């Protein structure tokens, strides 16, 4: 028996490693912000940078004008993600850029998210930028850090760097900003709920909950045939 | 304590240490495969290292190679602890290769990226411990199971 014991130990360790790796993979996979293209709407034109999560026929739409370097926007990011998960498929979330001039790296961060978006990873970069906001905002070499974020997200970093400098991402960000100016946005975060701006005092989890619930109650439910049933592969995991 | 018994203890310790490296490398590999970026949460240095081109070889994370190496080291150490003398050479060889790779990766972190990743430093510590054990293991006398 002793002769076979090392074989048994090695096989058991291999099995335990693979099993725990698989369990960890499954546990972490849902938190990964990979959203299939079928669940998203992204602008098709160079000057159209709309980024949407959720079904088009959702009764409530939240449209956020955000600045990646604005601390309140960062604070609001997670609650909006949670609301989107909680209310799906009755809630649609739209993000638009509105980088403020007093934030040194905000415009660059917007370009970063758009460059990631060109490789299908806008929302992943969006969430990463908000989560790491306090780090990159103070970084001595912010470009280096942005490149490493692209690497961590598995993007083609060379293409990402080129896209960062491209006219396409600049035009997209400018287009959002122009849209924001047109609808009267002058600070961030500015959140519209079904095209009505929410008061800054409502921009917290409780306030947003109440506003969404009120909008849902005011909106007649769409016919069952129009309701998109939540399909895990089509929604944010 | 006889040389044979101390060797068993050394190889058993080496196997246990290898498991720590295996856990670290497996964790990093899985995080890479899931695309989870929270692994580096709040650490710019960690992002700079794990998001760099040096963290992958041909699209495969370096951590995956590390996991393979640690598993090999664990297997060889286990067999060596049970008296399979031939695998001692393999154990020494793989630890030497891991040691050389670790030196290279530490060089890259210190002088190319100017940033250190906590997981990489933990792995380096594990490899240094294994290398220390390889040096400290008493030379083998005759006798073998295999």
Give the topology:
The complex is a heterodimer of chains A (237) and B (146).
Chain A lengths: L4 H24 L11 E3 L8 E3 L6 E7 L4 H17 L3 E7 L8 H12 L4 H10 L1 H4 L5 H11 L4 H9 L1 H16 L7 E4 L2 E2 L7 H14 L19
Helix pairs in contact in A: 2-4, 3-4, 3-7, 3-8
Chain B lengths: L2 H32 L9 H7 L5 E2 L2 E2 H20 L4 H28 L4 H19 L10
Antiparallel strand pairs in B: 1-2
Helix pairs in contact in B: 1-3, 1-5, 3-4, 4-5
Order of helices and strands of chain B: HHEEHHH
The biggest beta sheet of chain B reads: 2 strands, antiparallel
Q: Which stretches of chain B are low in confidence, meaning pLDDT under 50 for 5 or more residues running?
A: none
End-to-end separation of chain A = 47 Å
Task: Report on this structure.
The complex is a heterodimer of chains A (237) and B (146). Chain A is α+β, with helices and mostly antiparallel strands. Helix content of chain A is 49%, strand content 11%. In chain A, strands 1-2-4-3-5-6 form a six-stranded mixed sheet. The longest helix of chain A is centred in the N-terminal third of the chain and has 24 residues. The termini of chain A are far apart. With 146 residues, chain B is mainly α. A two-stranded antiparallel ribbon of chain B has the order 1-2. In chain B, helix 1 packs antiparallel against helix 3 and helix 3 packs antiparallel against helix 4. At the A-B interface, helix 1, helix 4, helix 5 and helix 6 of A face helix 1, helix 2 and helix 3 of B.
Kindly summarize this structure in a few lines.
The complex is a heterodimer of chains A (237) and B (146). With 237 residues, chain A is α+β, with helices and mostly antiparallel strands.
């Amino acid at each position: 028996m002793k002769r076979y014991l090392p074989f048994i130990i090695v096989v058991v360790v291999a099995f335990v490693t693979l099993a725990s790796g698989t369990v960890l993979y499954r546990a972490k996979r849902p938190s990964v912000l990979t959203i299939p293209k079928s669940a998203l709407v992204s602008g098709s034109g160079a000057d159209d940078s709309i980024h949407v999560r959720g079904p088009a026929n959702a009764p409530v739409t939240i449209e956020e004008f955000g600045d990646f370097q604005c601390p309140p926007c960062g604070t609001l990011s997670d609650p909006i993600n949670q609301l989107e998960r909680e209310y799906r498929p009755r809630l649609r979330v739209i993000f638009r850029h509105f980088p403020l001039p007093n934030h040194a790296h905000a415009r660059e961060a917007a370009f970063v998210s758009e460059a990631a978006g060109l490789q299908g990873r806008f929302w992943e970069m969006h969430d990463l930028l908000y989560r790491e906001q306090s780090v990159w905002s103070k970084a001595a070499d912010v470009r280096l850090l942005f490149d490493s974020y692209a690497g961590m997200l598995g993007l083609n970093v060379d293409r990402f760097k080129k896209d960062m400098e491209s006219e396409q991402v600049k035009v997209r960000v400018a287009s959002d900003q122009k849209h924001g100016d047109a609808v009267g946005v002058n600070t961030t975060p500015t959140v519209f709920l079904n095209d009505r701006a929410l008061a800054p005092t409502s921009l917290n989890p409780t306030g947003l909950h109440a506003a969404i619930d009120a909008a849902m109650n005011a909106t007649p439910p769409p016919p069952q045939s129009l309701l998109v049933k939540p399909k895990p592969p089509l929604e944010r995991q | 304590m006889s040389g044979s018994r101390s060797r068993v203890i050394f190889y058993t310790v080496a196997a246990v240490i290898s498991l720590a490296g295996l856990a670290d490398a497996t964790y990093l590999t899985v995080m890479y495969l899931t695309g989870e970026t929270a692994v580096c949460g709040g650490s710019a240095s960690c992002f700079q290292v794990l998001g760099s081109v040096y963290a992958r070889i041909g699209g495969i994370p370096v951590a995956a190679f590390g996991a393979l190496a640690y598993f090999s080291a664990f297997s060889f150490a286990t067999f060596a602890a049970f008296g399979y003398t031939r695998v001692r050479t393999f154990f020494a060889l793989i630890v030497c290769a891991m040691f050389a790779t670790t030196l290279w990766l530490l060089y890259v972190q210190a002088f190319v990226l100017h940033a250190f990743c906590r997981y990489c430093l933990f792995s380096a510590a594990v490899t240094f411990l294994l290398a220390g054990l390889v040096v400290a293991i008493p030379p083998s006398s005759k006798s073998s199971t295999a």
